[in-house]
Amino acid sequence: MRKLTTLAVLLTLPLIACSANTTGTATTSTTGSTPPGKDSAAVGFIFVGPKDDFGYNQAAYQGSQEVAKAFPNLEVITAENVPEDDNAARVMNSMIAKGARIIFATSYGHLDAALKVAAEHPDVAVVQQGNLITAAVPPNAGTFFGTVYEPVYLAGIAAGKATKTGKLGYVYAFPITQTIDNINAFELGAQSVNPDAQTFTVSTSSWCDPGKQAEAAANLLKQGVDVITQHQDCTATVIKATEAAGKFTVGYHADASAIAPKGWLTGSQWNWGPLYTDIVKTALGGAFTGSKYNDNFRVGYRTGENPFVQSPYGPLVDDATKAEIDKARELLKTSSPFAGPIKDQEGKVRIPEGTVPDYTTIEKIDYFVAGVVGSLPKS
After folding, report:
1. What's the pTM?
2. In Å, how far are 35, 295, 349 from 39, measured between CA atoms?
């Protein structure tokens, strides 16, 4: 019988509190004689935040439950609130001790811990969500992600059509490539239907800090912003603040339309189930090493089925706007939100006319495009 196990991670305690139905004999992986993940009795998922955050972690947790449905004899172990430090390695090792030889480390900052665990356990398949392995990829590790900026570009079209002030707002955590790409794509989508639209940015320096999020939303609203989106793990605070102000919301990570019934336009959300399930299937069958997942795997409209999809429309999005978005979605199957010419904030051409950059190039963008208001920290 399938067992669902949740680990509650408490930073003040040296051990993990496990639910009573956790079973499994402690094991230690010391050799690489068995293909990583083959015939594993369990799979582990670690999340940087709570599973009910109306955002990133909720979507990842839902994906883990799709794995549970697809493999009813596989024990699924989950851990919430796992920080991006050595605690992550500790939690993953505890899962391995309970029989998990497939591990999903789902936050950007979990990569170092994931690679450490992979090095210590060569017969465990360790996959990390969203970051990139820049050195040689170990035979039992990999990263994966969708091209997040594609549906964000489409949502930008809805924002550009809806705004009355021409001012859009973006609350983001850190200036990593994912957030930079998303901010730029959102602005480029808005520009495609509203050339004068600008996107005002505020960084919270946190994936989930409701106090900083509320302050950021208030700051944007004071500047006359009337459409707000975000790149935060927990999204409810910003959405509720925007709704309370009578302004428009574009969601991120999960469908949060229920908490913005009046101002919800659309958004972008994860559908991790199919991808998670295929990764597990590949590892269980002993075929992880050398597979597409034993790499920096990325999938988008041009290459397959993007796990990052557009959220449902709200009642304010008219048929003409939907048609614009449908048209743009078809173009993205052969093109890119970053098809040239693309200029940065200083007017310098960064991507020449006629150039359609590949996914790797886009994941190295380190500048804001023209129309984005705000600055990136100087390295």
Report:
1. 0.78
2. 9, 21, 51
